[in-house]
């Protein structure tokens, strides 16, 4: 590695600071530029030294690690925080993420875990900076298109403008991510004439293949691993492993067995997405329901994150947390699109209640249609094809139009096509 990673250590216990300094002293690519005994000292030192990574103890007297991380995010936004804690509780982890920490280490950790975390947050941050630099011209072009000529002209596949990447995510499982990802991909391909590729981003327990009735012996993303380990930009052999499906879309399946999931790295999946967007109009990724580094990499790469929720208390609570995290990660309001699935299922919660609770309007709704969905599932044919006239299919098509017709950077109000799409499932619309 050419650059050294500049690290600041923050811990109130002197022995811990010494120990960590010694451990990191063995690494040629890591340079400990200072150590602080308190949150306040950490802010002062970080402002002066602008470290790349701050190793932050969560439990400190006076200002704790979470408060210090929050201040640091504003004072030195280029520094990525790795939080250290003796407690591995979900609440600590969540609060750290919300404060802006990028990684969470539970003490005692091995020196391998420590250095891997430091390198990972560092390279993720660098990748983000370079992607943002690369995205800047595209963003201004999109803004110009929104102001003047229509921006939705079909792209010639191959060459020209890169395709749109849509991640279908939810902070809770079972809310319809795979259902929506598959059918939206099919709708965009068959009805809107887009060249679409669907990636099963649920690397451990992906079920895109099940919905599309694909043989698990098919080629999958796991076959790309050897190539991902080599340097380079494009994943050259990718077309060999993408399956052409009779529903009109192309599919990159998840690995055939769960333990292969960890072979897919964040930079690997990013390269796959970047390669595929060059030759497709639309790249749809069906994500897992939890945050890990690969999911984060997918969300980072996406132009639009379709965030699915349902009318259930747990779904709503998780959504509120996700929106806060999305904010911390710097995803603009326009990038995150809220999709309420099974929106008409009467569970005692009204859409207005949901919106009030999460402090945001729902962007799209999809009706509940157990018959169409289950029939399609059993036959392995997407309901968009087998039951094209159903309301649920029309809702999916509306969603497909919304995500392909606009870029995430375009402000919500700036797209004239958006208004008529807001349909009347609910009184407030
Ligand atoms: N709009 C809908 N109407 C009826 N059932 C649905 C709808 N969307 C999803 N489902 C059902 O809900 C369950 C979970 O959907 P799935 O797409 O597998 O969710 P996820 O991928 O988020 O775990 C499945 O049984 C699916 O058939
Ligand atoms: Mg799923």
Mean pLDDT: 84
Low-confidence regions? 142-158, 406-429
The DSSP helix count reads: 17
Distance between the termini: 54 Å
Count of DSSP strands: 13
Strand content: 5-15%
Biggest sheet overview: 8 strands, mixed
Helix content: 40-55%
* Envelope shape: globular
Features of the shown structure:
17 helices, 429 residues, alpha/beta, five-stranded parallel beta sheet, eight-stranded mixed beta sheet
Question: Can you describe this structure?
Answer:
Strand 8 and strand 9 form a beta hairpin. The protein is an alpha/beta fold and 429 residues long. The chain is globular, with a radius of gyration of 23 Å. Strands 8-9-7-10-6-11-12-13 form an eight-stranded mixed β-sheet, with helices on both faces. A five-stranded parallel β-sheet has the order 2-1-3-4-5, with helices on both faces. Helix 2 (39-49) runs parallel beside helix 3. Helices cover 44% and strands 15% of the residues. Bound molecules: adenosine-5'-diphosphate and magnesium ion.
């Amino acid at each position: 590695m050419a650059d050294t990673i500049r690290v600041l250590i923050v811990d109130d216990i002197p022995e811990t600071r010494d120990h960590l300094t010694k451990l990191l002293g063995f690494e040629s690519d890591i340079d400990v530029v200072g150590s602080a005994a308190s949150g306040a000292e950490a802010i002062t030192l970080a402002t002066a030294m602008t470290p790349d990574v701050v190793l932050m103890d969560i439990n400190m007297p006076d200002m704790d690690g979470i408060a210090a991380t929050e201040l640091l995010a504003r004072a030195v936004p280029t520094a990525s925080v790795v939080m250290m804690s003796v407690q591995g509780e979900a609440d600590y982890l969540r609060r750290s993420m919300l404060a802006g920490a990028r990684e969470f280490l539970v003490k005692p950790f091995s020196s391998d875990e420590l250095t891997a975390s430091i390198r990972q947050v560092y390279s993720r941050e660098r990748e983000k900076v370079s992607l943002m630099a690369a995205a800047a011209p595209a963003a201004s072009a999109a803004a110009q298109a929104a102001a003047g000529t229509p921006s939705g002209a079909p792209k010639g596949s191959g060459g020209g403008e890169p395709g749109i990447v849509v991640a279908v995510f939810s902070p809770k499982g079972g809310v319809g991510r795979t259902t929506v990802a598959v059918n939206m991909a099919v709708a965009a391909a068959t009805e809107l004439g887009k060249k679409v590729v669907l990636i099963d981003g649920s690397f451990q327990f992906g079920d895109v293949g099940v919905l599309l009735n694909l043989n698990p012996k098919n080629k999958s993303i796991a076959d790309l691993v050897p190539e991902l380990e080599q340097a380079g930009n494009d994943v050259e052999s990718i077309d060999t492993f993408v399956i052409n499906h009779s529903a009109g879309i192309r599919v990159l399946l998840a690995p055939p067995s769960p333990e292969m999931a960890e072979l897919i790295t964040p930079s690997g999946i990013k390269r796959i997405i970047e390669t595929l967007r060059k030759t497709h109009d639309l790249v749809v990724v069906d994500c897992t329901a939890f945050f890990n580094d690969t999911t984060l990499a997918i969300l980072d790469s996406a132009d639009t994150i379709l965030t699915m929720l349902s009318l259930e208390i747990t779904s709503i609570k998780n959504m509120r947390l996700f929106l806060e995290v999305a904010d911390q990660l710097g995803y603009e309001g326009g990038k995150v699109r809220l999709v309420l699935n099974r929106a008409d299922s009467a569970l005692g919660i009204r859409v207005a209640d949901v919106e009030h609770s999460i402090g945001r309007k729902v962007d799209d709704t999809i009706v509940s249609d157990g018959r169409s969905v289950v029939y399609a599932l059993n036959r392995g044919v997407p309901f968009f094809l087998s039951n094209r006239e159903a309301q649920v299919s029309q809702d999916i098509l509306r969603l497909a139009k919304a995500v392909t017709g606009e870029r995430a950077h375009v402000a919500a109000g700036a797209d004239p096509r958006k208004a008529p799409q807001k349909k009347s499932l609910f009184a407030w619309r």
